[in-house]
Write a sequence for this structure.
């Protein structure tokens, strides 16, 4: 993908953290996209206020309410995106929404060790981090295929699955964190399968570790700030093409070990 000029982009989990920073960074680029669909779980809650304010100032930014685990909402969101694209395809899909340990959730627990991990926690994190991205790609496949065929951008359809170094089996030297590590390892595997299945359609599929960043999930000990990591991540995404399909990359372009 030669940067973002005149393309259509869809990103999940945009009200805070990496997702919100991605939206802000893409909107600040001189080559702006044609349309940027930014989704979040609730457009009414206080934690989406900054995103709503950004949309008021940016006509290309379209906000959609979307819980990535909600199949009915996914169907409706795809219909809304298709209607807005009016015959064009979707050029870039970024599966960013994710959870780590549900410590601020209805579970009210931090689960890392085998003692602490539960079936419910495994299933919930796996559903959000691994099942949802796959179902989202499946639902958007016709629009991605359309974008890959649309001249003059051909091939111009890319899926970026936000993974983590925690999804790397090779880098797992501390154990624990069962729910998160397994979910991100699954993201890596489904990325490779998608890349193999859809290269023939001109669709690039990669997984990317955004770096350990200070966000609600990354925590205060993280070495990177969003302004340090996100411009590099956006530059990397803008440089992707089919030659990179099936890769596991770090935000700075380095190849990650599986
Ligand atoms: P945050 O916890 O700061 O933000 C997570 C985002 O995902 C929020 O917008 C949240 O929405 C959204 N989200 C969670 N569950 C759902 C859901 N079911 N439906 C829709 N949206 C949902 O995390 P980060 O921004 O740090 O992480 C973003 C991505 O980057 C994740 O995939 C994460 O695994 C990955 N990552 C992050 C690292 C880091 O150091 N920060 C390191 C490696 C990977 P809501 O406000 O509604 O909860």
């Amino acid at each position: 993908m030669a940067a973002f000029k005149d393309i259509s982009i869809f990103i999940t989990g945009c009200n805070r953290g990496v997702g919100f920073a991605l939206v802000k960074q893409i909107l600040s680029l001189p080559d702006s996209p044609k349309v940027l669909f930014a989704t979040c779980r609730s457009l009414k809650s206080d934690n989406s206020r900054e995103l709503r304010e950004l949309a008021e100032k940016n006509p290309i930014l379209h906000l959609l309410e979307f819980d990535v685990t909600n199949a009915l909402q996914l169907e409706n969101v795809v219909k809304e995106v298709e209607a807005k694209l009016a015959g064009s395809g979707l050029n870039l899909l970024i599966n960013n929404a994710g959870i780590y340990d549900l410590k601020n959730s209805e579970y009210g627990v931090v689960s890392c060790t085998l003692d602490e991990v539960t079936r419910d926690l495994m299933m919930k994190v796996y559903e959000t981090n691994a099942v949802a991205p796959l179902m989202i790609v499946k639902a958007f496949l016709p629009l991605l295929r359309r974008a890959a065929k649309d001249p003059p951008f051909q091939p111009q359809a890319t899926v970026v699955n936000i993974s983590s170094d925690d999804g790397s089996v090779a880098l797992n030297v501390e154990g624990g964190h069962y729910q998160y590590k397994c979910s991100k390892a699954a993201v890596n595997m489904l990325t490779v399968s998608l890349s193999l299945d859809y290269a023939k359609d001109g669709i690039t599929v990669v997984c990317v570790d955004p770096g350990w960043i200070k966000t609600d999930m990354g925590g205060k000990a993280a070495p990177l700030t969003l302004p340090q990591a996100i411009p590099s991540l956006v530059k990397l995404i803008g440089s992707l093409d089919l030659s990179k399909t099936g890769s596991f990359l770090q935000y700075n372009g380095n190849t990650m070990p599986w």
